[in-house]
Amino acid sequence: MKMKNFTLILMSLLMVCCTKDDEAKAATVQEAGKTLVVYYSYTGNCQQIVESLTAQIQADVMRIEPADKTQKYEANNYAIGTQLLNAIKANPNDAASYPAIDPVSITDLSQYQNIIIVTPLWWSQMAAIMQTYLFNYGSQMADKHVALIVSSHSSGISGVVADAKRLVLDCTWMGDALWINASNHSNRTSLIQNWLPTLNFAGKQTTMSKMYITIDGQTQAVTLVDNQATKTLVEKLQQAPVTVTLNSSGGFEIWGALGFSLPTSNEQINAQPGDVILYNGSNICIFYGTNSWSYTRLGKIDGLSESELRTFLKAGESNITVTLSLNNATGISNVRSNAESGAYYSLNGQRVENPSKGIFIRNGKKVIL
What distance in Å separates the CA atoms of residue 133 and residue 80, rounded to the nearest whole number? Predict the structure, then answer.
């Protein structure tokens, strides 16, 4: 869709402030190019930050994981964490100084113009696990626009900024690093809203063109159209996911009340399988068949055949719990290579021992039972 990034951020800013200075500041926001958010989270704080961030911008997300997941870095007054940091400080140019991490899902960063790094702070330094990733891939960030978000309990972040600049050379830093600590973590959404307009993003990209529908733990992406209804819906979903109860109707759709109204731009639409439609301003219809009526179009579910849609949408059933969100609740972007051959996995990456009716992943392919 053709919504520009600054439009969405401007709407977010207007919800938290309304001064002329803030409006002028929002107007200077650059249009964002394709963006990658890369993060490491030990306690879960950074994961929450990333969830708040990606509810506001369109970005791919990659999580960094240590190869050794048994270590308790905080034990004995952070003895292990300190040991890892000291090893890096002693020989920062030696790959052997850095703790091992799992293979990453994105090894080629050439497709991204903007990279946002989200990392915890360990003893006034960047967490050793994230330092490993940047040691390995920081050279690919040259000539890109890079930003930094740091999570700490209370310590200042200047040491983490220094580590980032040591490991990522010849990039354009988009702006000052954002510091989220124990005292303001609960306000992270508004902190991010105010921080984003200060960044110098590169290139152009449509923003928040995706919504996600989750039913029984399975999630599918919806490509949104560009109209006032979807803009208002995105604003609503930025605050929190919306869960509705839908029922099958007419042999072609599941539908029900949203619980709020959206702006309408009704037209005669020949709805097709996968279409997500607004009916009478306050009802959502998701189609697994066809119907012609006066609707406002919201979007379309990506990549499912008609039979797959019927399974996913529980065609013919009643009281179907459906969650709309701006985050991919499955957290799965691809099937990992270490998945056991022949085993069945749900779309959220969980192994299913005795699969019955539904859509599953098996041997890297989507199958319907």
Answer: 19
Burial of 338 (0-12, 13-18, 19+ CB in 10 A): exposed
Closest CA to 238 of 47, 16, 4: 16
Amino acid at 362: R
Residue labelled with tokens 């490993």:
132
160, 177 Cβ separation under 8 angstroms? yes
Angstrom distance (rounded) from CA 135 to CA 154: 26
Q: Helix-strand-coil percent breakdown of the chain, rounded to 5?
A: 30, 30, 45
Q: Are 207 and 53 in contact (CB under 8 A)?
A: no
CA distance 89 to 162: 12
Q: Encoding tokens for residue 7?
A: 């439009």
Q: Where are the beta strands (DSSP E) in 79-134?
A: 114-122, 125-126
Question: With the C-alpha atoms ordered 171, 177, 181, 186, is the resulting torsion angle positive or negative?
Answer: negative
* Contact between 177 and 188 (Cβ < 8 Å): no
**CA-to-CA distance for 278 and 296, rounded, in angstroms?**
5
Q: Are the beta carbons of 269 and 297 closer than 8 angstroms?
A: yes
Along the chain (369 residues), what's the average pLDDT of each consecutive run of 10 residues?
A: 40 41 35 82 93 88 93 82 93 96 94 95 93 97 95 92 96 94 91 88 62 92 87 88 95 96 93 95 96 94 88 96 79 39 57 64 60
Predicted pLDDT at 363: 59
For the stretch 19-27, contacts whose Cβ atoms lie closer than 8 Å and that sit 24 or more positions apart, written own/partner, are 25/197, 25/198, 26/197
